[in-house]
Amino acid sequence: MADSSDSQKSDAEREEMLDKMLTRLALCDDSKLENLLSKLLPYCISSLSSQSAEVRKKVMEILSHVNKRVKHQPHIGLPLSELWKVYVENTTAPMVKNFCIVYIEMGFERLCIEEKASMAPELVANISKLPPQHQEIILRSTAKVIGECHSKQLGDNVAAKYKLINGEDRQLLFEFFLHTVLYQPPSQGMGSSAGLSIRQTDRVTGKQPLKGDTLLMRKLGILNIIEAMELAPEQVYPLYVVACSDSQEPVVKRGEELLKRKASAANLDDPDLMNRLFLLFNGMTGVENIPLDSRVNPGNVALRMRLMSIFCRSIKAANSFPSTLQCIFGCIYGSGTTSRLKQLGMEFTVWVFKHAAMDQLKLMGPVIVNGILRSLDGYSITESDAISRDVKSFAFQAIGLISQRMPQLFRDKIDMAVRLFDALKVEDPFLRLTIQEATNSLAVAYKGAPAPVLKDLEALLLRNSQVDQSEARFCAVRWATSLFDLNHCPSRFICMLGVADSKLDIR
User: In angstroms, rounded to a whole number, what is the distance separating the alpha carbons of residues 310 and 206?
Assistant: First the structure.
C-alpha cells in the first residue's frame, strides 16, 4: 500500500508543480519565454510518463499554451539538447518520445544556420536506434539543412562528422540520400516518383512535394556530403548514376563529375551492385505479395538508358536471371519504352547471348528468342529510320549467336532458316550483311538434324540458290557445302549453279 500512496503523492506533487509552471508561463513576458522553456519543456514532456489522467491533462494544457505562444515567433528557441537527452534515454516511455520528437523538430528549425549544420550529423549518428516514423522526421530535417547549408561547399568540421557515421546508421542515411536524389516533382495524378514507391516518396517529402530550387539545392548538398563521406565506389555508383540522369542540369553535371572522379573504379561484376542497378531499372516488376504503396516503380527513361549502357559492360548483368530477362522485356515491350530503349535492349540481348553461362542461357534463351521474333514481326519492312535498323540488326545478331550456343532450339524444324532466308530477300540492303552473317551462323544448328528436316532444307536451299538477291544465293551455297558431303546430289547441283553465278564471291 505504501508504494501506491507514494505514487499518488508524487503525482499530486507533479500536478501541483505543473500548475505553478502554467501560471508562470501565463505571466511570463515573450522576451523571457525562451529561458523559461529551457527548464519547463523537458520536465513537462517527461511528466507524460505518469499514469495520472490529471497530470497528463495539465501537461496538454501547458503544451497547448506553448504552441500558441511560439508558433508565430520563430526567434524563440526551444531546449533542443535537453529534449534530445530525454529522447535518447533508454527508460523514456514511447509517448514521451513521440512528444519529444515534435518539439525537437520544431526546435531544430529555429536554430541559426551554423548550429543546424553542426547538429544535423549528430542527430543522424544513431538514426538506426530510432522508430521508423521518427527516423523519417530526423532524416528530412537533415536533408533540409543539407540543402540550406551545403549546396555550394562543405566545411571540414561538418564533413568530419558525417564521415564518422558508420554501420547501419550510414546505410539508412545513404538509402535516404539515394531516394532523395531519385525523387522528381510529381506528374499529374502520380502518387510516387519514378524509381521509388509511394512509401519512399512520402518518406522523402513528408507528403509535401519538393520542387524547384529547394529540390536542386538539396540534391547538390547531398552530393557534397556523399563525396565527403568517402564511401566505396560500388556503394556510391548507383547514386551518381541517378544524379547523371536528373531533370536539373546542375545535378547532372555534378553527378557526371563525381561518377568519373569517385566511382570509375567500381567493379561492375559485383553482385550486390548489379542487384541495386537492376532494382533501379526494373523496379519491382514481377515481384508478388508486396503492398501497393511499397511497390517500387522502374526508373525514368533517362536513367534506364544510362543503366543499359552499364549492363552491356557487365558479365554479372548477363548472368542475373530473372532480372536480366525482365530488363530485356522491359526494353522491348515495357509500358513507356522508347525506340532507343528497344535498340539498347536488343544490344543487351546480344551481350547476354555472348556472355551468359549455359545454365543461365537455358533458362532465358528460349523466352528471349520468342520475344525477338515477336519484336521483328512488329516492325514493318519499310521502317528504315536509323534506330529501327539498329534494333533489327541487333535482333539478327542475337539469333546468330544463340544458334551457335543453343543449336537444339532450332534443329527440329526449319522455321528459323525460312525466316532468315526470307529476310535476306525482303529486308533493307543496309541490313543484309548482318542477316547474312546470322544465317551462316544458323547453319551450324542443323548439323545432325533429323532426316525430314534435312529434306525440307534441301528444297529451301534449292529455291534460294536461284533468287535475284545475291546474299540469299551466297548463303544457299554456304549451307549446301557445310551441311552435306560430296556424295549428296542436291547440294552438288546447288554448287554447280553457284559456279556459273554472276557474283565473284559466290563463284
Answer: 33
